[in-house]
Write a structure and sequence with these properties.
- The structure holds 3 protein chains of 3 kinds.
- Chain A has 8 helices and 18 strands.
- Chain A is of the alpha+beta class.
- Chain A has 3 domains: 83 residues, RNA polymerase II/Efflux pump adaptor protein, barrel-sandwich hybrid domain (OB fold (Dihydrolipoamide Acetyltransferase, E2P), Beta Barrel); 36 residues, Dihydrolipoamide Transferase; 198 residues, Chloramphenicol acetyltransferase-like domain (Chloramphenicol Acetyltransferase).
- Chain A is elongated, with a radius of gyration of 26 Å.
- Chain B is 43% helix and 11% strand.
- Classes of the chains: A alpha+beta, B alpha/beta, C alpha/beta.
- Chain C: This is Alpha-ketoacid dehydrogenase subunit beta.
- Chain C: Its EC number is 1.2.4.-.
């Protein structure tokens, strides 16, 4: 059987695409995975790969043709398969040409109502989603017939993108999916499939930090601080220095946030929450520590208020307490960055020309490339590192 | 009432009409009849030249009832008029310039171009409006008469309407109320024989509209509507009665419209002969001959009056053509006294 | 002894007081209608006014709605301020010519040279067992006509103030009075006062849903809101008060706050108040704040039946409002 080459759906609410370029012609040999044509969508040009090995034939959509999603535009024939045996739809896509622009689109466009891929959502839900650069298709609606309501969007926005991979199942018991799990799943899929991530790593020298922390925690009457409290503060101050990164992608434009609100991942039974410490850059460490503690306690008791987890302009995820040396986290949309923090470990370090024992903490910054380019991300990580390695700067 | 007999009884100028009105007033009446005739002809001409849109209802042939009725009216008296209302408006004292401006839909028109042919009215001269609804103005005239009575004025309200209107419920309800409340209103029916295409013979259970007055216990008078003196004398009596608080009257003017109902009329319901027969009874020509016979005017003076009317209408049309069109952003203007927007 | 400044009056008494005060203040004001004299009006609204003001100012008309309406129009044009009572709003059909073609349009047709300061009162609504020709709510008919103003006061306080405002108004104002409200009591100041035409009022503030209601439905909506508040649903109830011109700002502000809209009215649901308000919201900036479909609760697509069970079923009742709003808030609609 010849393999159908269809015009694939490559965009959320795409009902049709325009073929912008063919890289093969009838009779060409193709290998599975080779780019055979490109399609133009509202947002970008997408490459379409050959779905199998063989000889391309019966290309039926010319460059410029508007083709509904799912319609065959060519076939790949195996050895000895008859090119003539394929029956094509009578209305074959034709090119839009300068001379004859009239009979343009080709096959009938599917109506956008009915069972279309367009999510059913209330105007308010759409408005909130728009403001947060959120794709509604990533959400599950709790209203009648799956209608997405404002509440669904709010809940979606307030639930963290979990970093920890679910532990592999020991056997094949089917665990029912609860709302938290479903939300985590949807948001992760949405983030990982729509946000172009890249990762930057740095091994930070935390000798001084640990020493300073020890000193502070030894003083009677001062608040007890965790390493994570320092990390949160350092990330906030770093984002202050590189404000381009304290931003979110939305269709309307890049939203640059004035204050740095840091979501802190808190693991709970069955999932995790990311409550938000607001305006971290302006708060003393003691206050940050106290707030994180309160929020974490509330999260564990499942008593977080929607206002506790709404918003956030970046996230800190720390798996150091589990002995994880380094990891990369998935961004929590519409945030543009997340910092994954590993354990502080004693290890040989090169100091000048000699090797000595130092303490290093591996930090990995994940960035949304739509908002944060490599250089900006690097600046942010460098600023963070500089602050965390000179922790006194976090105190004044 | 025998029209012919009445005239024969007045070989000299003994009729009340000629005794009551000075020669100047009679000349002015003729002038107004000419103004109406020329206005209608000018309107028809403008229509055919494509200068106006919409239709119109011409009162050529009915000038005597309009002018004869209004000769007795003061500025504070009211009239209500009909879709065939240009004549009433002129008779009550309107300026043809401002009427033509309205006819052309201009801001300078009496209704700022919002009313058009069917609603031209000079409120200042006591015209409460020409009405596009058959019999629409009759109860309104009764209401105005009620106001006059409440305000203890000795004014009257005259309601013009056609034979067709007398078949409407509003006519009967209004006449009944005017009578039970003894209101100062004069109902002037211009019976031109047809309600659009249907003759009075086919549409009325009685022979004369005036017969219907009996049902409302008011005088019902029939006059030759093409003879201004007949109309005027009947209205004179009716207005006197009204002003004296004795209640309403109904006057039926037997007349004829020479033109069709409106510009879309193809005259399928009446004969050419009938139209010609009535054209021969032209009310203007009749009045001219009377005035000349009675020595009130000579031919030369008639020519002067006619020429002056022609001149005035020509100037009115020029004035209207130069008028200002309303601007689209004012489409809701004057819907309410205080603009809601 | 001075009369107390605020007394409890019935809706009908409040009307009568407004009419009397208007006639006291302005000799141009007079009343006309069928059986409003010694009979006192079909619903005893004019009561004994004829004895106080005489037959000239409290005029019985023949049973001739069209002609009498035209008389009112003419009197208004000629300097009077008539207040015309229909026995039943249903009979407005007999007079529509004068209301729609004359009263509403004369000012416009005459280029703004005249005004028609006319008030018409229409006892409306079902619930009295008067069946199909004496129970209708036809306010939407008249609200469709530019040149008219249409009001539906829902309380004794409002009817007095709005009726006085209507009598002051230079343009024709149509007053729809629900017959079941005539006996309703409420605080009414003794002195004359005005409640502006064209201004809605929030009768109950809430955050969960905006219920826009008219006339008697305001009271049913308020009852429903009380019941719903026990279920944690916090409804805002807006008394529209004026159907033309509609106070869009108050409704838009409310819907932006609550994200939900229900329209409750007794007139036939289709092409009625709810259609207008819904469409207005859909066109407005409040659209983007809607978090649920809009709900319309209006009269059945049928004439008002005689049988009391059917009669009740043909217009929104409190329980129905509760149930439908609950469904909406709980995501079943």
């Amino acid at each position: 059987m010849p393999i159908e080459v269809i015009l694939p759906k490559v965009d959320m609410d795409m009902a049709a695409g325009t073929i912008s370029r063919w890289l093969v012609k009838d009779g060409d040999r193709v290998k599975k995975g080779a780019t055979i044509f490109e399609i133009e969508t509202d947002k970008s040009t997408m490459e379409v790969e050959a779905p199998g090995d063989g000889t391309i034939g019966r290309i039926s959509a010319e460059v410029g043709a508007v083709v509904p999603v799912g319609v065959a535009v060519a076939f790949i024939f195996g050895e000895g398969e008859d090119v003539g045996a394929i029956r094509l739809p009578t209305e074959a896509p034709t090119a839009k040409t300068q001379d004859a622009p009239k009979p343009q689109p080709v096959a009938i466009m599917p109506a956008t109502n009915g069972d279309s891929s367009k999510p059913r959502a209330t105007p308010l839900a759409r408005r909130i989603a728009r403001a947060h650069g959120l794709e509604l298709a990533a959400l599950a609606g709790s209203g009648p017939r799956g209608r997405i309501r404002a509440e669904d969007v709010q809940q979606h926005l307030s639930t963290p993108a979990p970093e920890a991979k679910a532990p592999p199942a020991a056997d094949s018991d089917l665990i029912p999916i609860d709302t938290m799990r479903r939300t985590i799943a949807e948001r992760l899929v949405f983030s990982k499939t729509t946000v172009p991530h890249f990762y930057l790593g740095a091994a930070c020298d935390v000798e001084r930090l640990l020493k300073l922390r020890q000193e502070i925690n030894a003083v009677e009457g001062l608040p007890k601080l965790s390493v994570n409290d320092f990390v949160v503060k350092a990330l906030a101050l770093a984002l202050r220095q590189v404000p381009e990164a304290n931003a979110s992608w939305s269709d309307a434009g890049i939203q640059r946030h004035r204050s740095v609100d840091v979501s802190v991942a808190v693991a709970v039974e069955g999932g995790l929450f990311t409550p938000v410490v607001r305006a971290v850059e302006a708060k003393p460490l003691g206050q940050i520590a106290a707030e994180i503690k309160t929020l974490a306690d509330r999260a564990k008791a499942r008593k977080l208020l929607p206002s506790d987890y709404a918003g956030g302009t970046t996230t800190v995820s720390n798996l150091g307490m589990y002995g994880v040396e380094s990891f990369a986290a998935i961004i929590n949309p519409p945030q543009a960055t997340i910092l994954a923090v590993g354990a502080a470990t004693r290890q040989p370090v090169v100091a000048g020309d000699e090797i000595r024992i130092g303490t290093r903490m591996e930090c990995t910054l994940s960035c949304d490339h739509r908002v944060v380019d490599g250089a900006v991300g690097a600046q942010l990580l460098a600023a963070f590192r500089s602050l965390i390695e000179q922790p006194l700067r976090l105190l004044v | 009432m025998n029209v012919q007999a009445r005239r024969e009884a007045d070989p000299t100028n003994q009729r009340p009409f000629y005794r009551q009105f000075q020669p100047e007033a009679l000349q002015d009446a003729l002038r107004r009849m000419y103004l109406i005739r020329r206005f209608e002809e000018g309107a028809e001409d403008s229509y055919m030249r494509g200068l106006i849109h919409g239709t119109m209802h011409l009162s050529i042939g009915q000038e005597a009832s309009a002018v004869g009725s209004c000769m007795h009216l003061r500025k504070t008296d009211y009239i209500t008029s009909t879709h065939r209302g240009h004549g009433h408006c002129i008779a009550k004292g309107a300026d043809p310039k401002l009427m033509f401006a309205e006819f052309f839909g201009k801001e300078e028109g009496y209704c700022r171009g919002r009313g058009g042919s069917m609603h031209i009215a000079d409120v200042e001269s006591g015209n409460l409006g020409a009405n596009g609804i058959v019999a629409g103005g009759i109860p309104i005239a009764v209401g105005a008469a009620l106001a006059i009575k409440k305000q203890k004025r000795d004014d009257v309200a005259v309601s013009f309407f056609g034979d067709g209107a007398s078949n409407e419920g509003a006519f009967h309800e209004a006449l009944n109320m005017a009578s039970i409340w003894k209101l100062p209103v004069v109902f002037v029916c211009e019976n031109n024989k047809y309600g659009m295409s249907v003759s009075t013979e086919r549409s009325m259970a009685v022979e004369h509209v005036a017969d219907r007055a009996a049902g409302y216990r008011m005088p019902g008078v029939i006059v030759d509507g093409n003879r201004i003196e007949d109309v005027s004398e009947a209205v004179m009596e009716a207005t006197a009665r009204a002003r004296a608080g004795e209640g309403p009257s109904l006057i039926e003017c037997k007349t004829y419209r020479i033109r069709g109902h409106s510009k879309s009329d193809r005259n399928r319901y009446r004969s050419k002969e009938e139209i010609e027969e009535w054209a021969a009874k032209d009310p203007i020509r009749h009045f001219e001959l009377e005035l000349i016979a009675r020595g009130i005017l000579d031919e030369a003076q008639v020519d002067t009056i006619r020429a002056a009317a022609e001149q005035e209408i020509a100037e009115a049309i020029d004035f209207a053509r130069e008028g200002t069109d309303p601007t689209p952003d004012e489409v809701t203007r004057d819907v309410y006294t205080v603009d809601l927007a | 002894m001075n009369a107390p400044a605020i007394r409890e009056l019935s809706y009908a008494q409040a009307i009568q007081e407004a009419l009397a005060q208007a006639m006291d203040a302005d000799p141009r004001v007079f009343l006309m209608g069928e059986d409003i004299g010694v009979y006192g009006g079909a619903f005893q609204v004019t009561g004994d006014l004829v004895h106080r003001y005489g037959e000239d100012r409290v005029m019985d008309t023949p049973i001739a709605e069209l002609g009498a309406a035209g008389v009112a129009v003419g009197a208004a044009l000629a300097g009077c301020r008539p207040v015309f009572e229909f026995q039943f709003s249903d009979f407005s059909a007999l007079a529509l010519e004068q209301i729609v073609n004359q009263a509403a349009k004369i000012r416009f047709m005459l280029g703004g040279k005249v005004s028609v300061p006319l008030v018409m009162r229409f006892p409306a609504g079902s619930g009295t067992g008067a069946a199909a020709q004496h129970s209708q709510s036809l306010e939407a008919w008249l609200a469709h006509v530019p040149g008219l103003k249409v009001i539906q006061p829902s309380t004794p306080y409002d009817i007095k103030g709005m009726l006085l405002a209507a009598i002051d108004d230079p343009d024709p104002v149509m007053v729809f009075e629900h017959k079941l409200l005539y006996k309703m009591k409420g605080d009414v100041p003794a002195e004359p006062y005005r409640v502006p035409i064209g201004k809605a009022i929030v009768r109950r503030a809430g955050t969960g849903i905006s219920i826009v209601a008219t006339s008697i439905m305001v009271h049913r909506a308020l009852e429903a809101a009380e019941i719903l508040s026990g279920e944690g649903i916090d409804a805002e109830v807006i008394d529209l008060r004026t159907l033309r011109p509609i106070d869009t700002a108050t409704i838009i502000a409310s819907v932006k706050k609550t994200g939900r809209l229900a329209c409750v009215y007794e007139g036939v649901k289709t092409l009625g108040m709810g259609a207008e308000i819904s469409a207005m919201i859909a066109e407005s900036e409040a659209f983007d704040y809607l978090d649920a479909p809009i709900l319309r609760l209006g009269g059945a697509e049928a004439p008002i039946p005689y049988n009391p069970v059917l009669e009740k079923a043909s217009v929104p009742q409190t329980e129905v409002i509760v149930a439908r709003v609950r469904d909406l808030l709980q995501g079943r609609i």
